[in-house]
Specification:
The chain has 345 residues and is of the alpha+beta class. The protein has helices spanning 62-71, 91-96, 119-130, 161-170, 185-191, 209-225, 326-335; strands at residues 6-8, 11-13, 17-27, 33-42, 45-54, 80-86, 137-142, 148-156, 174-177, 195-203, 242-251, 256-260, 267-268, 273-278, 285-289, 294-300, 304-305, 310-317. It has a five-stranded mixed barrel with strand order 8-9-11-18-16. β14 and β15 form a beta hairpin. It binds zinc ion.
């Protein structure tokens, strides 16, 4: 017997077919309609339902390119289960090249949303109910903020075995346990039983070939690990990721011109010189030292800093792949909390 069609917002997608469905969100002031466009790939054979989303933050365009390449992957023709792909969640921010919505709200603080709330709240409500909660799991693609870059990394919730298994299959260089923040997609989805993996890589408003390739390969690996895609043509990750349970920001001790001597992906020891800040006359120069050992998972690219600006994002390396502990989480929350996307606090 043929698999039943997938129904979404009044559309029926037959098994073995794919279709792009446009969910109305709003009308812009100039009368241009705004949709949440979802491409539904409904496999011939049964399996899990998974979403892949990008540009929840409108300027994090790297995820949009990852999605574009994913949809061109020949492996998708052998899909089991159902894949819902949303290249641009926050169309408003994408058009404005901005992280935020037009009213300066952050969509990733608007979940679960409400049909009569703010624009962000309405968009969050549509995305959550029409896409996210229809799925067993999802992968949400992000990048660092503008003028910053991230080593490709996966963020998972503490003590969530499903996302940890997905994270290990993904094969990014780093898996970082990070706390769930109220109002975020990840927190709301987790509370309702959908595991969401967050991929962070590259820089805002730019493509980074390595980060794009790592993203496409990682998504295919996760789908393979869930038996949604065949093993053929999808190689497992060559190296195990670094597992990190806490991270901290290394900040500029003074304003000035920044020269960085270490880059993302490098491991450092306590006291190592990471960068130097000098005044424009070159009279006073201050070194920035690593406050602890760890791996650099993000850094500032702009060579002009104010005192207190986050220059490096340093993650502590776990000696073993030990399971998450309450102590680990508590330590992270105390140190300098990093939540579920690259917001600098
Ligand atoms: Zn983001």
């Amino acid at each position: 017997m043929a698999r039943a069609p997938f129904e979404i917002a009044g559309n029926r997608i037959a098994a073995g077919c794919f279709e792009t469905v446009h969910l109305p969100v709003s009308i812009l002031p100039d009368h241009t309609p705004v949709n949440l466009s979802v491409q539904v790939h409904h496999g011939k054979r049964p399996g899990p339902t998974v979403f892949v989303s990008a540009a929840v933050h409108g300027d994090e365009v790297i995820g949009v390119e990852i999605v574009r390449r994913l949809l061109r992957a020949p492996q998708l023709t052998a899909l089991r289960g159902t894949l819902l792909v949303v290249p641009i969640v926050n169309a408003f921010g994408f058009l404005n090249r901005s992280r935020y919505l037009p009213d300066r709200r952050d969509l990733n603080r608007c979940f679960p949303g409400h049909p009569s709330g703010s624009l962000g709240s309405r968009l969050a409500h549509i995305f959550l109910n029409e896409v996210v909660l229809r799925c067993d799991a999802g992968i949400d693609l992000h990048s660092a903020a503008i003028h910053r870059t991230n080593l490709p990394q996966i963020r998972v919730s503490p003590r969530d075995k499903t996302t940890m298994a997905m994270a290990m299959a993904f094969g990014a260089p780093v898996v970082l346990t990070s706390a769930l923040r109220d109002g975020s997609l990840r927190a709301e989805a987790a509370a309702r039983g959908t595991s969401v993996l967050l991929y962070e890589a590259g820089e805002g408003l730019r493509f980074d070939e390595l980060a794009v390739r790592a993203g496409v390969a990682g998504i295919l690996r996760v789908l393979r690990s869930m038996a949604m895609l065949p093993a053929k043509g999808i190689a497992k990750a060559k190296a195990a990721p670094y597992l990190c349970k806490s991270s901290t920001w290394v900040r500029a001790p003074a304003g000035g011109l920044l020269r960085t001597f270490r880059a993302e992906g490098e491991t450092v020891e306590t006291g190592e010189v990471l960068a130097s800040v000098a005044d424009p006359f070159g009279e006073v120069e201050t070194e920035i030292l690593a406050p602890a050992a760890g791996i650099l998972i993000g850094r500032a690219i702009l060579p002009v800093v104010n005192e207190g600006d986050a220059v490096f994002h340093l993650a502590a390396l776990s000696p073993t792949a030990a399971e998450d502990t309450v102590e680990g989480l508590a330590q992270q929350l105390v140190s300098d909390p990093l939540f579920d996307e690259d917001e600098i606090i």
